[in-house]
Fold this sequence. Notes:
The chain is α/β, with parallel strands linked by helices. It has 11 helices and 8 strands. Strand 4, helix 5 and strand 5 form a beta-alpha-beta unit. Cytidine-5'-monophosphate is lined by residues 14, 16, 40, 124-125, 161, 183-184, 193, 195, 213-217.
Amino acid sequence: MSEVAKKSSPIVVALDYPSMDQALAMANRLDPTLCRVKVGKELFTRSGPVVVDALHRLGFEVFLDLKFHDIPSTTAKAVVAAAEMGVWMVNVHASGGQKMMETARNELDKMVGPRPLLIAVTVLTSMLADDLKQIGVQAAPEDQVQRLARLAHQSGMDGVVCSAQEAQMLRCQLGGSFQLVTPGIRPVGAEVGDQQRIMTPAQAVQAGSDFLVVGRPITRAAEPITVLQQVLAELKNLV
Ligand code: C5P
């Protein structure tokens, strides 16, 4: 695991905003010693690498959530480009296959200095059994998650994005050092919104999650830093 991944806070705040100004305004209300931040497709497509640079200048480590999925050489080059931006975590789709993941791993390993954690997305939580059937996958979603997580593990990924419900099973199957990154986290009393299968931060950590992606419960709070501190206090009580 990279040095930075040892930092104590498991919270990654999703900066799901359409502009850099809004993302930085929220980042300024957070604390880089208490969380990392996630930049996704909308923000990155609108703002580009400058938003990552700006977040780094504020002291945040960045999960660049662009879910690359392409032929092996193209995916690997995109992963290297992300690494050159100095991000802490980057991801690809496990359904891109073993060759794609291994090529990305190998190219990343050629780099000197700190490298991002390379994480694979298994099955998007928006995909139900019928959606998988439509694309020719007859397996139940949870079986497909296991299959892709095993493939990601064999292909040298540092971990997977999965729902907290799957964390315990994957932790048992894939061992302690495989990083499990889980969205769908709702602190007690928070609005559920459009998330389907949720867990509290404490439940997710107990199930084996290493990093908890939390968006709206923090970013839409009147006092985001207070919610962040409350979540961390809840987790501290676990140990
Ligand atoms: O606001 P909320 O806490 O629901 O945000 C969760 C974040 O995690 C969003 O950026 C969302 O796109 C992302 N995510 C997710 N479920 C997945 C993968 C990513 O909610 N399976």
